[in-house]
């Protein structure tokens, strides 16, 4: 059976396709981690909201525990969740753009391979 030599342009497209797949995987992993952080933050907000107004609350700062108030903790948690939500939306947009690029590159590679089959 004859070995088919891929043209340099097609080799480059295949390399780009692999790089896009790797980038997409990184973005998906980051998105999943962010979603977990958001879920943890939402759970923390629910737990703190359920506490009595006079409950003693401590938060960790640089390895030490510092006494704080329920309202302050809630404010910080809600702000953290807001920032995480913004980062999540940004990652989702990046993921969508990469998926589009990936599909386009897959089509180019398939066309290149088909044309090789027709000429080979």
What's this, in brief?
The chain is 78% helix and 8% strand.
Primary descriptors:
120 residues; mainly alpha; Helix Hairpins; 2 strands
What does this structure look like?
This protein is mainly alpha-helical and 120 residues long. It has a single domain, classed as Helix Hairpins, CATH 1.10.287. The protein has 2 helices and 2 strands. It has helices at 8-50, 70-119; strands at 57-61, 64-68. It has a two-stranded antiparallel sheet with strand order 1-2. A hairpin with a 2-residue loop joins strand 1 and strand 2. Helix 1 (8-50) packs antiparallel against helix 2. The radius of gyration is 25 Å and the shape is rod-shaped.
Main-sheet strand order equals 1-2
CATH topology: Helix Hairpins
Q: Distance between termini?
A: 12 Å
Nearest-angstrom radius of gyration?
25 Å
Biggest beta sheet attributes: 2 strands, antiparallel
- Silhouette: rod-shaped
Task: Tell me the helix content.
Answer: over 70%
- Coarse structural class: mainly alpha
Return the average pLDDT rounded to an integer. 93
The proportion of strand residues reads: 5-15%
The assigned CATH architecture is Orthogonal Bundle
Question: Could you name the CATH class?
Answer: Mainly Alpha
Order of helices and strands: HEEH
Q: What's the helix count?
A: 2
Annotate the secondary structure layout.
Blueprint: H1 8-50, E1 57-61, E2 64-68, H2 70-119
Antiparallel strand pairs: 1-2
Helix pairs in contact: 1-2
